[in-house]
Amino acid sequence: MVPLDLPRLEDLPLARGTRVLVRIDLNVPLKDGKVADDLRITTALPTLGWLREHHASMVIAGHLGRPKGKPDPQYSMAPVAGRLSELLGTEVPLAPAVVGPKVEPFAASLAPGQVLLLENLRFEPGETADDPGFATNLAALADCYVNEAFGASHRSHASIVGPPCVLPNAGGRLLFREVTTLSRLLEPHERPFVAVLGGAKVSDKLGVIDALLQRCDSVLVGGAMMFTFLLAQGYDVGNSLVEPDMVEDCRGLLETGCVRVPTDVVVAQAIVDDAETRVVAASAIPDGWKGLDIGPETAHAFASEIGGAALLLWNGPMGVFEVAPFVAGTRRVAEAVAACPGFTVVGGGDSAAAVRQFGLADRVDHVSTGGGASLEFIEHGDLPGLAALREGKKG
User: Fold this and answer.
1) Which of 5, 39, 131, 306 is most deeply packed, by most CB within 10 A?
2) Do domains 9-178 and 188-378 have the same CATH topology?
3) How far apart are CA 64 and CA 69, in angstroms?
């Protein structure tokens, strides 16, 4: 079942001054006390703009980092409040806390169109614990709820699944775009459908690989997880990262005939900028060396298959692309995805960072804002945050 039957912004019972709690994925990177990449903020602007046009006031909630359930100044939302103020062209004050008597007067005094940003949701232990009391206190700050945090909707956290139970609710513009686009991968009509998967661990992606093999024509495997597949083929992998307990699973996936693994790899003895590298056959990684990228032969083969795709999903880099000697495989795949004439989806996370780093994001049909959320949606066809909206209080 593709869960497109979600409540929309237009379904909210809005009147002038209605307070709306807007959950946004604000977990942005910071540098020198400022937001280094504001994509997760800018993608929420259409929803915030629509609410302002309809004279609602907004209480924005989000998290930043992992402050372990207590206030931590390095994870304050202050830089986010500053960037939001610049983007919206109006002051966005930061509340002194997340919920409670220090916050309630701020929310109650909001005029139509005004915006308040709550402190980091994860300063409260009740957020990640999905505590009903915390969710109730959060919902008490507003009259309606909007989920614009697709990237956090795979987590059953209080701010995601709690407020929809008690407030009229809706999905935001970004959330709808994510669900609509990713649903295209659940019931694919375009062929061939090619998936490119990287990342560190097979165990993290076993479920999504199984789900994709029911829909895909081929799955191209790179990243550190490729070495467990190579081990399953009986190859020497040197000091490469492997998961020995996943070898049998990999062997079963290879037997489907739809999983493609590298034929050559880039190896080194250390992950450093001036590392000595070699290109070796995937079947013969020398002792003391570790695989850190797909090789040029594999990159060419993957690019060729990507170029023939009518529908393409890419999630996960092909190697340690953050370090110069190991960037080539990821760059080649990114360029192939950008040039692919079919419908292309980059599934968030490091692969989304890669296409932005290479200046190719505007040549991809959809770059997801949620790495883990996009994979879980593809695997399960639903997310806790989406189910909460569908099953929640109606306007």
Assistant:
1) 306
2) yes
3) 12
Calculate the alpha carbon distances from 89 to 47, 49, 114, 187, 383 in Å.
15, 11, 11, 41, 33
CATH class of 9-178: alpha beta
The ranges assigned to domains in the chain are: 9-178, 188-378
CA-based R_g, the chain, Å: 22
Q: What is the pLDDT of residues 146-193, one digit of tens each?
A: 999 999 999 999 999 999 999 999 999 999 999 999 999 998 899 999
Decide: 184 and 155 in contact? Cβ < 8 Å: no
For helices 371-380 and 202-213, give the axis angle rounded to 10 degrees.
40
Q: What is the C-alpha separation between 57 and 109, in angstroms, rounded?
A: 10
What tokens does 143 get?
Answer: 């009259």
SS3 content of the chain, % helix, strand, coil (to 5): 40, 15, 40
Beta carbons of 123 and 69 less than 8 angstroms apart: yes
Q: Check if the beta carbon of residue 337 is closer than 8 Å to that of residue 303.
A: no
CB 292 within 8 A of CB 271: yes
Distance CA 116, CA 185 (A): 37
Tell the burial category of 314 from Cβ atoms under 10 Å away from its Cβ (0-12, 13-18, 19+): buried
pLDDT value of position 349 = 79
Mean pLDDT of the chain: 95
DSSP 128: H
* Ramachandran bin of 199, using left for φ above 0, alpha for ψ from -120 to 50, beta for the remaining angles: left
Q: Which phi-psi region, left, alpha or beta, contains residue 204 (left: φ > 0; alpha: ψ -120 to 50)?
A: alpha
pLDDT for 4 equals: 66
Helical segments of 295-346, H only: 296-307, 328-339
Q: Looking at residue 126, what is its pLDDT?
A: 97
188-378 placed in CATH 3.40.50.2000: no
Total Cβ atoms within 10 A of residue 335: 17
Nearest residue to 83 (alpha-carbon basis) of 95, 70, 73, 92? 92
Question: Which residue numbers are catalytic?
Answer: 40, 201, 349, 372
Backbone angles phi, psi at 60, to 5 degrees: -95, 135
Beta partners for residue 148, in sequence order:
24
Name the band, by pLDDT with cuts 50, 70 and 90, for residue 1.
very low
Q: What are the residues whose beta carbons fall under 8 Å from the beta carbon of 86, sequence distance 6 or more? A: none
